[in-house]
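> run fold Cysteine--tRNA ligase
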Amino acid sequence: MQHPLSLYNTLTRRKAPFQPLNAPFVGVYLCGPTVYNEAHVGNARGPVVFDVLTRYLRYLGYTVRYVRNITDVGHLEGDADEGEDKIGKIARANKLEPMQVAEGYTNLYQQHMEALGCLPPDITPRASGHIVEQIEMVQQIIDNGFGYESNGSVYFDVPAYNAAGREYGKLSNRVVEELLAGSRDNLAGQEEKRSPLDFALWKKADERHLMRWPSPWSEGFPGWHLECSAMSRKYLGAEFDIHGGGLDLMFPHHECEIAQSQACNHPTNEAQVWMHNNMLTVNGQKMSKSLGNFITISQLFSGENTTLAQAYSPMTARFFLLQAHYRSPVDITDEGLQAARKGYRKLMNGLRLLDKLRELSLSPDVIKARTVAPVTEGKTPDTTAADAELHKLVQDCFVGLNDDLNTARCIASLFNLLRKLNGFAANPATLASVSAAALEEAATAYQALVQDVLGLHDEPRASAEDLLRLTLEFYQEAKATKAYDKVDQIRAALKEQGIVVKDTKAGVDWAYSEE
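> ok
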C-alpha cells in the first residue's frame, strides 16, 4: 500500500506505522465480556472495531490469529478485590448453577456478535477453562518475588514490582504516589494486602462462593486480571502484536496485565501495541449497567427501550458504531441511529449499482465512444484524467483506514466515490470517459471495503428478495394497465418497508430509501 497502516498506541501515546513482530503473522487479543448479564450496545463497540481491524489486516495480506476471551469467573463486583462474583450472584439469586448463567449469556452474546456482522474469533478461551495456566502463573510470580500469600489469598506486590525498576501506571499514565494518596481511604476489607495498590492474583473462597478450585494456597478462584495474561500468553505468546479493549479497561485491568506478564520473566509490555476504543454515552454519560442507563443489544434490535423511538437493524447498529473514529466518544440517540440507517442504505444501494455499471461499461455504445488518452509521461496509454480522478477517490478510502483505522474517514470517502459512480449511472454516456479497468478497480475496491473490511452486508433474505420481485411484477402490470391507484398503493406500501420504486428507461428497479 502507498500509505502503510499506522495505529495509535496507548502505551507510547502516538501513532506509528504498524510493524508485526513476526510478519506475515499477527496476533490480536481483545478483552471479551463478563457473561453475567446481557451485553449492552456499548459492549458491542470493541468487538465491532476489532472485527474491522482483523478484517483489514487480512485484507492487507497478514495471517491473523484473533483471540477474544470470555470471563466466566473471577470478576468481582468491586475493582478493589472485594464483593461477590458477578456470575455467582446472579446464579444464587435465580437458583441456578453459575455455569448455567455463563453459558446462557455466552450463547446470547455470540448470537448478537454474529448478527452485528462480527466474524467469530479464531479462539474464544474461557477463564474457567484455564485455571491450571493461571495457577502456574501465580506460582511463577511468587517465585520471582512479586507476589505473596496472605490468609489463603495471593496478591501482586506493586511496591516490589516498582522497586525492581518497573513502572506500574505507565499504560494509564498514572503516578504511583497519587494512586496511593487516592486509595488510603479505601482500605476497609483489604487488611490482607501489604499495600492498597496490590491486587489479587488468587482469592480464597468464602463459604458463599459457588465457583472454587483447589490450589497450593487455598480452595478459591483466580483474580480477574490474571485470566487475560494467562490466556494471551498461551495462545499468542509472551509478547504479541495488538491488545485491545475498552477505555474503561486501561486501568486497572490492562495495567495489571502488563505487571503480571513482566513479573513472569517477560521484560516486554505483553503486547507491542495497546489499542483502546472509547465509550458509548447516553445524554453525555457513559453507558453503564451500574448507572442503569444502558440499552441492551436485544432492546436496540426490538426497540423495547424508553430511550429509543423505534427498533434498529443489526447492520444499522454496526454502521452507527463505525461512523465515528474508535477513539472518539459516541452519544447514542434516535437521530444518530436514523442517520446511520440512511448512510447504511446508501452504501447498500451502491453495491446494487456496481453490476449495472459493469454491464453499462461493456455495452457496445460505451465501448465505441470510449477513447484512449494520449500517452504522457508517467501514464499508460489507457490512462485518462477521469481514470486518475477515479483512482484517487479509491485511494482516499484506504488513506482513512491506514490512519489509525479511521472508519469515519473511510466511510466519508466511500460516499465521495459513490457520488461519482452514481453520476455514471445517471448519465451512462459519461462512462466513455473512463477505462473499463479504472471502473473495475473502483467497483472492486468499493465492494471489498464495504463488505469484506467494514463488514456491512445486505440484510434482506432470499425470500424477501423473491417477494419484492413479485411485488414489482404486480407494479409493472398495474402500470401497463393504467391502474394508477394500485401503482400508488404499491409504491406507498414498499416505501413503508424502506424500499423506493424507480422507473427507468431500462424498466422498473428498486433501491433502499435513504430518507
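DSSP finds 17 helices and 15 strands in the chain.
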